[in-house]
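Let's see one such:

===
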Amino acid sequence: MVRFVEENITTMLETRIISNSEVLYVGGDEGDTSPGTKVLQNFQINEEGGGGLIRSWVDSMRACSPTRPKSLDSQSCWIKEHPSALKMFEEILHESEGKQIVMFLDYDGTLSPIVDDPDRAFMSKKMRNTVRKLADCFPTAIVSGRCREKVSSFVKLTELYYAGSHGMDIKGPEQGSKHKKGNQSLLCQPATEFLPVINEVYEKLVEKTKSVPGAKVENNKFCASVHFRCVEENKWSDLAHQVRSVLKNYPKLMLTQGRKVLEIRPIIKWDKGKALEFLLESLGYDNCTDVFPIYIGDDRTDEDAFKILRDKRQGLGILVSKYANETNASYSLQEPDEVMVFLERLVEWKQLRCGS
């Protein structure tokens, strides 16, 4: 594994930019014993056939895609620790009193339902109208693992900030936003050098995963996603083998996980949390005590943003989930329909305060 990986992964783990539980695998040659690899003991690839690694992947894939509560007791305890943002709405308003609310929203599973075909993850007209009103009241950003252009085509609102590829592709509003600072078009792409290798890996993954029925590979510009929502569970290990066979040759890439999706991403110090910080700074709210960011998301990758807010004791995170999940979010909502109700109540509250 090249020195680039040693320095970046080691630093990212030691500074908690990423955690052992968030990275499934780091690309690199078989039998590598460099310091960077030793730090990642959970992800060693020099086992014969990689059997232990694959089993670990499959276990993580199951853990990130729960289909039912672990137990009624654990679910009840989790709800007490992460109460409904709807039930605690007045408390949230009290926390934000006298501060500028800034909204950050994931897309899949937050604004739109999770569907079998990721190309058909359309948001409803009612949700779009709600987000449009929200953006009129507060600075609003969509932060997604999707390619920025794709998520923008789903949302169809030009007055929003968009951060695609897990925050590695950020662009400001094209028009219609009264919250935009100045006339300069905001653009941030910290992983541009990785475009050729991501395209190369995407093409190889498309070929390799053809042997696994239901697998779908998506090119999200600065990352690649392997969806296994339509893959039979007894085929998950086959899929993991195919992904590993490609990724092992790319030492500057890592594999992370989401809800029935494997994400191939560059090893850089950038994620949805960094995107949140960049957007707050761009809006003029860095190091401000009178700003109240609210981040709503359903995925493991949203935890980077939740953690930033919790560590800074600034604003709050809301996890969208029906089931108990380890999270840095303060509150919960069960599904996109509840997200819409929460956003509608925020809009109504703001309009009443403004007399509109």
The chain has a mean pLDDT of 85. Residues 111 and 336 are 5 Å apart (CA to CA).
